[in-house]
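General statements about sequence and structure are easier to judge against a single worked case. For one protein, we set the task of working out the structure tokens from the amino acid sequence alone. This step matters because it turns folding into a mapping between discrete strings. The amino acid sequence and the backbone structure tokens for this protein are reproduced below.
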Amino acid sequence: MLDDRYAGAVRVGVASHNLFDIAWALSLGHRDRIDLEMLEGMAPAQSRVVRDEVGEVLLYAPVVRRDDLPASIAYLTRRLDENTSPENFLRALFKLEVGSAEWHEQRERFERAVAAAPHVSTASRRDQDRTRLSAWPQQGRFENAPDTDWTVEANRRWIGGHLAEGPPTSVVPTITAAAEIDAVVERSAAAGTRWAALSFGERRRVLLAAAEVIEAQRGSTLAVMAEEAGKTVIEGDAEVSEAIDFARYYAHCTTDIERRLEPAGAADFTPAGVVVVASPWNFPYAIAAGGVLAALAAGNTAILKPAPEVRGTAWLLANQLWGAGVPSDVLQYVACPDDEVGRRLITHPAVATVVLTGAYDTAMMFLDWKPSLRLLAETSGKNAMVITAAADEDAAIRDLVRSAFGHAGQKCSAASLAIVERALYDDHSFRSRLADAVRSVRVGPAADLKTMMGPLIAAPSETLRRALTTLDHGEEWLVEPRQLDATDRVLRAGARRLARRRPRSRDRAAEHGRVRAHRRNPIARRARGEPVARSGGGGQRLRQSPHHRSNRAAPAVRGLEALVGGVWPEGRRAVVRGGVRCVVGGSRRPGGVRPRVEGALRCRARSLGPAVGAQHPPLPAAT
């Protein structure tokens, strides 16, 4: 950087309190091209000496408003670490004199660093290149497939080529008659005996081959999802990685099942038979792959019936699995209308199990059609995140915004209600940071790598439009959403909150814990009575409500039909103290399709049967 070729074009800033580093920089003989930088208050005596020697030192001084002191915590923590870390120069500075033990130790550290400098590689360690297909090594245990590193230019060129080329053209077959459904199911049942007779090892090889095919066609899959489902490239990429994970994980599970069956004859393992996988439009690839691959791993045949909006994505997946060696009669693709033809598929006597990801009403409709149906269903809900005053505010805001607006707010695990402890709810800094985070969600085309939130799958219904754009009584906009295109599918992210009102006597009593939160929380009362607010509906909306004490938050959302729930800080015991539990359909934090476990919220019926993706997912598909 100090090469004479760059003279007049480049100045070098040396930011350090280490006097050895500063002396070395000055000894290189380019003082007119070096700026020395130090932190105000960290080494005042040394900064004065350096200033007298050089003539100028740039001092950085942190500035924070009195009412925004938490913003300085990260800075102060770093300074504390620098002054207390055993190997840090600043810790030795208090006893540093020429010839002292501390001086010799720091001198040796500096000399070793200078000697090693020419041998330190300056090449980027981020060397993933999607243009060079390489199998992710499986070293005897399951490992997650890595998502694409979009900071690598080669990967951006790679996806740019696929998007410019567009999705592959294909004609997706459809079925319009119940007689055709009968033929499909009968063919699947006939193939079941042959597929079930294969050893676990033979099926395992097919699943591992499927993982390789899915990886090889990652770019084409992303182009299809972006075009058909409005799935952003980054979110679609995670879906492809998850599908690969499903294939490899279920292959890994078959090894575990084999061990359970040893010695031979110690237990029986009988596949269930024909499994119908009714997959959703919000995760058109990963969830479809998960249901199908779990069924195949357990020796079942599978019929993939996708949501009408994403038939092309499911058709691509089916072709990939056929190309990997799955027989066409073991996995069949059915695109049919949701009328008597679809009903015939679900209620066919030869169908042993239905795996559904979709609306709760759809699950109930399936059971109404066939009460004896073996249904494994995961449905949507009104998901809440409880944020207490003890939370890491920045992390809580990050998780809340990601959950609410990821996948255009259309995933079944999206958080749409934030229950915030009153002390934090009324904090101006928290409110402004949350609003800024919501406004910072970049909305745009799915194919743009800069897009954080893509379009809705379709123009919103009147019910959803009202939920997205209309305030209820007593609410105010934190960030007002705005339509950004003529199709009605692209909207700016929005958030609402309960308007601050003057405390009444009951509210003052509540602050002292004498009134149960759900009795005076209007958001809970209103949410119970509104279909969209109560059970979800798929859209970019976030509602914020206060609660006075952390252990009174759970009743505020009791009665909401939720799938997942979260608590900040994680594992906050006060929220569930005294037997008070939030009611959700799973113990996961609201978020993406690979959520972390969050055990502070407990279960309510927004899922039916074991979930695909549980600890041993192939086992529910067998007896």
About this structure: The CA atoms of residues 72 and 547 lie 27 Å apart.
